[in-house]
Design brief:
The structure holds two protein chains of two kinds.
Chain A: H1 17-21, E1 37-43, E2 49-55, H2 57-61, E3 65-70, E4 79-80, E5 83-86, E6 93-94, E7 100-106, H3 109-116, E8 120-125, H4 132-136, E9 151-152, E10 165-173, H5 176-182, E11 185-193, E12 205-210, E13 216-220, H6 225-236, E14 243-247, H7 263-273, E15 277-280, H8 283-289, E16 296-304, E17 310-322, H9 328-336, E18 347-356, H10 370-388, H11 392-399, H12 418-428, E19 440-451, E20 456-463, E21 469-472, H13 482-494, E22 501-503, H14 522-549, E23 556-559, E24 562-565, E25 568-574, H15 575-585, E26 591-597, E27 617-629, E28 636-646, H16 653-672, E29 678-679, E30 682-683, E31 702-707, H17 729-741, H18 752-767
Parallel strand pairs in A: 1-15, 13-14, 17-18, 21-22, 28-31
Antiparallel strand pairs in A: 1-7, 2-6, 2-8, 3-7, 4-5, 5-9, 10-18, 11-16, 12-13, 12-15, 16-17, 19-27, 20-21, 20-26, 23-24, 24-25, 27-28, 29-30
Helix pairs in contact in A: 10-17, 13-14, 14-15, 16-17
Chain B: E1 2-4, H1 9-19, E2 23-26, H2 32-37, E3 45-48, E4 58-61, E5 65-69, H3 74-79, H4 81-86, H5 88-95, H6 100-105, H7 108-114, H8 121-127, E6 131-136, E7 139-144, H9 145-148, E8 149-151, E9 154-155, E10 162-168, E11 176-182, E12 192-200, E13 207-215, E14 222-223, H10 225-231, H11 238-251, H12 262-282
Parallel strand pairs in B: 1-3, 2-3
Antiparallel strand pairs in B: 4-5, 5-10, 6-7, 6-10, 8-9, 11-12, 12-13, 13-14
Helix pairs in contact in B: 10-11, 11-12
The chains are: A alpha+beta, B alpha+beta.
């Protein structure tokens, strides 16, 4: 595959592997500073209410309590992703059960906890709304009265002040009515998905120190240091460079640690006390006070010719973003671009709505809306296959995107390994010769996901006096292995071994800008920046070595950390000699710089959603699942799972396999086990006893298949893969259940009870005369 | 909160006697520590049984049957040659509790005193007609296991009492015994757990005696007396087993929680009772005979 490379494309060991495996890495929860206080948050008990009075005088009298802050201490800046709608602490009113109302800092965690019980809040309840469809209706309680004042990015948002619709977007192509009229078969279904939590092993954690010069230093297990810096500065109404974010190691993120959370109240408390303040969420707070996956309701109508050729797709996508956007506006923006899935459809009509409700906010969650639309679009493909009596693989291959296909937004697609993903998965489960056994079934589905536009990365690469390479970016390693992948890219480009590269942790005072570990973007964007910075460094090294060797730079090459004249290996200097000379003797230290921004992005037209290039790149994947269904209990046991991903070029195949396997299991949990259960906006199962996150014994090993359709803009052709890995599992499980016992579940999660009810209903139907 | 580690049973009983309602016994901590963490219990004194090594014994004799110290871990029961030999159903039941990590620390006595709906040992011990010893400074009393479970997460153990031993009588150690559990994840408590111990008459088809324990369905584990009555002394058949299972389902008082609805639990009780009884009768059903 990658014979031309020496470092890239190899399953090399993680640069931080030993430190992680031996527990010698510092996570956010491990941070300690001298004189540090511990903080806790008083959270709303009401889903929607005016806050009439907060009495915290008794808490201040408790020995050991150093400060209490409320909305009154909050400078009042609003923050958000593309839509700034959220305060750090509730102002005047609360919009969900769990919203921060006050925070207390004390000498230890126990005292802070005790103080919470001494703070009383008086509410004036307001009518609340919990269902996104109801929230869209005229007359529904308005959750954000000042929507008209909110700041947002042009091209991303179309808010409707006076309603609960914070973003309404469309995609229009062709004439859907004509398409349906020409169709031999039209299927229409409603699909629902539920809220899940990310359940990172490490909860949200930070230490914040308000410095004497007015700056604020934050140690946080964030996924996106620069986004955190921007949000915190906006909320505190101070310049961004007054905030310094130092990234700790991250014990899992999955999108849950992208946005500003506990850092806000901790900063206010540190400013009030002058002492460093530490805050760590409890597991309960992770459920009631962080973010969830967006619940959705998707109505979809799809028409096809007798031969399976897709003709038209009409969809209404409703995303429930809860009390605040938390990037819900972007989730909607993304999924509207390809709601019908990775298939050629000549006529498309999509109406998308992102809607506020009075429950804990939904936010970024591995897959970013695509598990929801895939749940719908692949349900439609299965429904069409059933109606047309076609093979589910065949109807997908017939319509699948390939290189040069035109997307619904009018983009000419490039780097499309989709058909190969479908075929490789089919081979792995022996699709065409699969054995039919009672209660056993196989589902095979496909999907796509974009990486969002308007994100940027920069990298610095320096040559040290010992000849080793220092790599400085603000990429965040959540455990996915990005540090290793970036080091591989730098090593490949320069001509050194992986071991010669040291990767610095992100620190917004010293490492350059980056949009963070989001949207499966780091390998592509940061990778490009690193590749360019490494190339820049290489040119400088060759120039310096040319002087030292009295040769021309173009005659030199770098191999295994040595610069030599091509064809004359004896005439050489080591990188250490070059580093020492440039850094110490010449006073001309070598620093390579590189950056990446996808420059040819065209933001979709707001009236039609049309754009020749809405995204830096699209990822494609296919998954197959084999299940066994107990028709007396409805229990579904996953026997086998295969997951194939077009990742452009695998920089580190081992890391990709790990991502693909972890993501698949997260997807299976979403399908069959995990569910945040709400009662009037209150999470009734905010603990790991009643919220069922999969354990290592619940699912089989996942077979990861790597497909490479190199992307012209990617570093060595690479694209991302992390988020895609989780998207299709639920749809694949549904197809497998239908294959096994003939029932179709369109409302997630697929509980035993739903499967059993469907089986019983079908049995009853079959018994009816006629 | 005060933490004490008595060095002897006498000392432990005295500590409990002195603290009354304020004291709470800490065994393996697999349930209590979670409840403490969530603030669901706030005892003034935590009495750890860590040092009472006498309470971890597993003993068997033909007259007394099987005796298990209350501090015996689930993992010890699961792997004990004595338990595997004389009461394989109990070893198998233990192997189904939560995860191996929990079983390494969690104890049988702690599990029974916690009385979580869906706990696996209670229905098994009901079917095995077990008794428990409750000791206090006032003396020792022996209680039938079914009487231990007095309500939702409540037991008949008085504040000054310590559950010290679980006894399974010799009469329960022969015959066929089955425990079947329905849950979504392997680590979950039972949505429905049914244990059956069954003795066939000489003809091989008549049910000479049986005892059925049910867990997970109701707020407390219980003995399914009506189903037993239908089958005791009768010829076992698919029909009679189905009839008994239907009665058990009709009579149950199921709960709804995050793991399943009352309606679903009722249906599953019928299915798992039928599977467990069938397994006890003729070994049908894959996992039935254990």
């Amino acid at each position: 595959m990658s014979a031309e490379f020496t470092v890239v494309g190899k399953s090399l060991k993680r640069v931080d592997g030993v430190a992680r495996a031996t527990g010698r890495i510092t996570y956010g929860v491990d941070m300690k500073l001298p004189g540090m206080l511990h903080a806790k948050i008083v959270r709303s008990e009401q889903p929607h209410a005016r806050v009439v009075r907060i009495d915290y005088a008794p808490a201040l009298r408790l020995p050991g309590v150093k400060a209490v802050v409320t909305g009154a201490d909050d400078p009042g800046g609003l923050f958000g992703s593309r839509m700034s709608d959220q305060p750090m602490m509730a102002h005047e009113k609360v919009r969900y059960i769990g919203e921060p109302i006050a925070a207390v800092a004390a000498v230890d965690e126990e005292t802070a906890e005790e103080a919470l019980g001494l703070i009383s809040v008086e509410y004036e309840p307001l009518p609340a709304v919990f269902d996104p469809c109801e929230a869209m209706q005229p007359g529904a309680p308005i959750i954000h009265e000042r929507m008209h004042e909110y700041k947002y990015w042009e091209g991303w948002c179309n808010p409707r002040p006076g309603t609960n619709i914070i973003n309404a977007l469309v995609l229009r192509k062709g004439d859907v009515e004509r398409g349906f009229a020409e169709a031999a078969v039209v299927v229409e279904n409603t699909y629902r998905t539920h809220a899940i939590q990310h359940v990172s092993m490490e909860p949200h954690a930070c230490v914040v120190q308000a410095e004497t010069d007015g700056r604020v230093t934050v140690w946080s297990c964030t996924q996106a240091p620069y986004l955190l810096r921007g949000s915190l500065a906006a909320a505190l109404r101070i310049p961004a460079s007054k905030v310094r974010v130092i990234a700790t190691a991250v014990g899992g993120g999955y999108g849950g640690k992208v946005r500003l959370k506990l850092e806000g109240p901790a900063a206010l408390l540190s400013m009030k006390t002058g002492r460093p303040v530490k805050m760590v969420y409890t597991r309960t707070e992770e459920f009631i006070g962080a973010v969830t996956r967006h619940p959705s309701v998707i109505r979809m109508t799809t028409g096809a010719r007798r031969d399976g050729t897709l003709l038209a797709c009409r969809a209404e996508v409703i995303l429930d973003t809860g009390a605040y956007c938390e990037a819900g506006e972007v989730v909607l923006w993304e999924v509207v671009q390809a709601t019908p899935g990775p298939y050629v459809v000549p006529n498309v009509w999509v109406d998308g709505y992102c809607v506020y409700t009075n429950r804990v906010s939904a936010g970024p969650c591995r897959g970013f809306g695509w598990p929801q639309v895939t749940w719908a679009s692949e349900g439609q493909m299965d429904a069409l296959a059933r109606e047309l009596k076609m093979d589910p693989l065949e109807i997908r291959l017939k319509n699948a995107f390939e290189e040069g296909s035109i997307s619904a937004s009018g983009e000419v697609l490039h780097s499309v390994g989709f058909k190969e993903c479908l075929q490789r998965v089919a081979e792995a489960v022996d699709w065409h010769k699969r054995e039919r056994r009672p209660g056993r079934g196989i589902g095979l589905i496909g999907f796509t996901k974009m990486s969002m536009p308007q994100t940027a990365s920069a990298a610095f690469v320096k040559l040290n006096e010992d000849g080793r390479i220092g790599l400085m970016t603000s990429a965040v390693d959540l455990g996915q292995g990005i540090s290793t992948a970036l080091a591989q890219i730098a090593a490949e480009e320069i001509g050194v071994t992986l071991e010669a590269v040291e990767v610095a942790a992100a620190d917004t005072d010293t490492t350059p800008f980056d949009s963070g570990a989001i949207s499966s973007r780091q390998t592509f964007h940061v990778g490009n920046a690193v590749k360019r910075a490494a190339g820049d460094l290489k040119q400088q090294v060759l120039a310096a070595a040319a002087t030292m060797l009295e040769a021309r730079p173009e005659d030199l090459e770098i191999r295994q950390g040595r610069v030599s004249v091509r064809g004359v290996p004896d005439k050489s200097v080591t990188l250490a000699q070059v580093g020492t000379a440039t850094q110490i003797r010449l006073g001309q230290p070598i620093l390579g710089r590189g950056a990446h921004l996808e420059e040819d992005i065209v933001m979709p037209d707001m009236a039609t959603g049309q754009s020749p290039k809405p995204a830096p790149y699209w990822k494609y994947a296919a998954q197959a699942v084999e299940v066994e269904v107990d028709s007396e209990t409805g229990k579904v046991v996953v026997q086998k799972m295969v997951s194939a991903h077009d990742c452009g070029r695998a920089i580190n195949p081992l890391s990709i396999e790990g991502q693909v396997q972890g993501g698949a299991v997260m997807g299976l949990g979403f399908a069959l086990m995990e569910e945040m259960i709400f009662d009037e906006g209150r999470v009734v199962n905010p603990n790991l006893m009643d919220y069922r996150v999969p354990t290592s014994t619940d699912f089989p090993d996942v077979e990861a298949v790597i497909v490479e359709a190199p992307h012209r803009d990617g570093p060595f052709g690479a694209k991302g893969v992390g988020e895609t890995s989780t998207i299709g599992a639920a749809a694949a499980v549904r197809s497998a259940i239908a294959d096994a016992v003939g029932v179709t579940i369109n409302e997630l999660p697929i509980t035993c009870e739903k499967v059993l009810d469907a089986i019983e209903a079908r049995t009853k139907e079959q018994k009816l005369p006629g | 909160m005060q933490y004490v580690e008595p060095g002897s049973l006498t000392e432990a009983l005295q500590t409990l006697s002195q603290n009354g309602e304020e004291g709470k016994v800490l065994a393996g901590g697999q349930s209590l520590l979670l409840m403490l963490h969530l603030g669901l219990v706030r005892p003034a004194v935590l009495v750890s049984l860590q040092r009472l090594s006498d309470l971890t014994a597993i003993a068997y004799d033909p007259k007394g049957g099987l005796r298990l110290g209350a501090m015996t871990t689930q993992r010890a029961i699961e792997t004990s040659p004595l338990v595997r030999q004389h009461c394989p159903m109990l070893a198998r039941t233990s192997s189904l509790i939560a995860s191996v990590h929990v079983r390494m620390l969690g104890t049988l006595g702690g599990n029974l005193c916690h009385n979580l709906p869906g706990a696996d040992p209670p229905p098994a011990l009901i079917a095995l007609d077990a008794t428990v010893l409750l000791a206090s400074t006032r003396g020792v009393r022996e209680l039938a296991i079914a009487e231990l479970f007095s309500g939702f997460m409540e037991t008949a153990v008085r504040p000054d009492e310590l559950l010290t031993e679980i006894r399974i009588p010799p009469a329960s150690l022969g015959g066929r015994a089955v425990y079947l559990k329905h849950c979504v994840r392997s680590v979950d408590p039972a949505l429905v757990g049914v244990a059956v111990r069954l003795k066939l008459a000489g003809d091989g088809v008549t049910c000479a005696d049986l005892r059925i324990g049910v867990g997970g369905v109701s707020p407390t584990p219980y003995r399914a007396g009506s189903a037993e009555k239908i089958l005791r002394g009768q010829r076992l058949s698919r029909d009679s087993i189905s009839a008994a299972s239907a009665v058990a389902a009709a009579e149950c008082d199921p709960i709804t929680d995050a793991h399943g609805s009352a309606r679903y639990r009722r249906k599953m009780l019928e299915v798992f009772m039928r599977r467990a009884l069938t397994g006890g009768w003729n070994g049908d059903g894959a996992a039935a005979l254990c």
